[in-house]
């Protein structure tokens, strides 16, 4: 996979995380922007970024734009930019994005003045670089010499463990901690003589992070912090990001099997929960046939959801088959249904 293709795959996986249910996104927004949002009344609206197409600008589009609708006033906008590498032009890009996002929602006031409200913005860096600052700052000077400081906060995700992110209510993005290993593997593999001990230690770090991710998602789902769909999305993104590392760097069958087993152990819990739902529905009907049908349909539906999520982010068929226990024919049927 080329560097550009790898970056594109990471971008798509990061965006996929924000297909999670509203409550998970509200937890993320509330913490990353340090604001209160009432989960009971708020609704997350995904805003298309396709309107960023002014001919004077490049075709770079903002990653994630969200609106929070809570029926208490104007819906605030949130722009989340997820960046793999350091970009010296990131400050200008954020000014451009902020202006165009705000302009797309601009309104005229009673004095016939156009009001442009800049969205809340944050840049999340996934890979370490010595030039990454705590904030991006641009001073805009007008002809009358008045000026405005345009400031965007920066979040160094690479500096945190999965446990630390989960404790901060940023559990939605814990799979993205795996991206930092891309650069670390590159450094080791580019050396003339590969240090196998250092390489193996890095592989173990990856596996330990994945173990943390699976433990957190399983525990959070059991405790009601996240729902099953959120867990499925997080695990699906984790598989995809590991697969990218495995195909380019790790290429070790035992490591791959260990990851598959960790994911499989959690997806089996998903199936077991659907199994129990099926039992309860069957008992409620009071008919033995209903119980058996509930079991079968519940398990099948749980596995199907996991498989569909993995397909959405381009996970290899062999990984999906291992994680779900589906047969190739069953997976082909799910693919056709998803078309």
UniProtKB/TrEMBL annotation:
InterPro entries per UniProt: Rpn/YhgA-like_nuclease (IPR051699)
An annotated Gene Ontology molecular function: double-stranded DNA endonuclease activity
Superkingdom of the organism of origin: Archaea
GO BP annotation list: DNA recombination
Name recorded for this polypeptide: Transposase (putative) YhgA-like domain-containing protein
Natural source organism: Methanospirillum hungatei JF-1 (strain ATCC 27890 / DSM 864 / NBRC 100397 / JF-1)
């Amino acid at each position: 996979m080329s560097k550009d293709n790898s970056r594109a795959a990471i971008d798509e996986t990061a965006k996929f995380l924000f297909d999670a249910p509203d409550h998970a996104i509200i937890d993320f927004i509330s913490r990353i922007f340090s604001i209160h949002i009432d989960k009971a009344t708020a609704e997350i609206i995904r805003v298309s970024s396709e309107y960023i197409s002014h001919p004077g600008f490049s075709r770079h589009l903002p990653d994630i734009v969200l609106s929070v609708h809570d029926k208490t006033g104007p819906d605030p906008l949130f722009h989340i930019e997820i960046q793999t590498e350091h970009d010296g032009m990131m400050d200008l890009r954020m000014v451009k994005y902020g202006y165009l996002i705000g302009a797309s929602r601009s309104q005229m006031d009673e004095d016939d003045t156009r009001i442009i409200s800049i969205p809340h913005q944050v840049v999340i860096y996934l890979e370490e670089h010595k030039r990454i600052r705590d904030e991006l700052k641009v001073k805009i000077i007008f002809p009358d010499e008045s000026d405005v400081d345009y400031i965007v906060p920066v979040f160094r995700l690479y500096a945190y463990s999965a446990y630390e992110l989960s404790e901060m209510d940023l559990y939605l993005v814990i799979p993205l901690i795996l991206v930092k290993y891309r650069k670390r593997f590159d450094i080791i593999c580019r050396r003339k003589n590969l240090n196998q001990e250092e390489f193996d230690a890095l592989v173990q770090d990856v596996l330990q992070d994945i173990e943390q991710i699976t433990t957190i998602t399983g525990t959070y789902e059991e405790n009601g912090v996240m729902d099953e769909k959120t867990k499925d999305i997080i695990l699906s993104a984790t598989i995809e990001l590991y697969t990218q590392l495995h195909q380019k760097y790790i290429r070790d069958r035992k490591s791959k099997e260990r990851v598959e087993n960790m994911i499989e152990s959690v997806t089996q819990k998903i199936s077991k929960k659907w199994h129990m739902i099926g039992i309860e529905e069957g008992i409620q009907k009071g008919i033995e046939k209903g119980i058996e049908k509930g079991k079968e349909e519940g398990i099948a539906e749980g596995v199907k959801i996991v498989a569909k999520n993995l397909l959405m982010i381009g996970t290899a068929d062999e990984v999906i088959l291992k994680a779900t226990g589906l047969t190739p024919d069953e997976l082909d049927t799910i693919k056709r249904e998803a078309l």
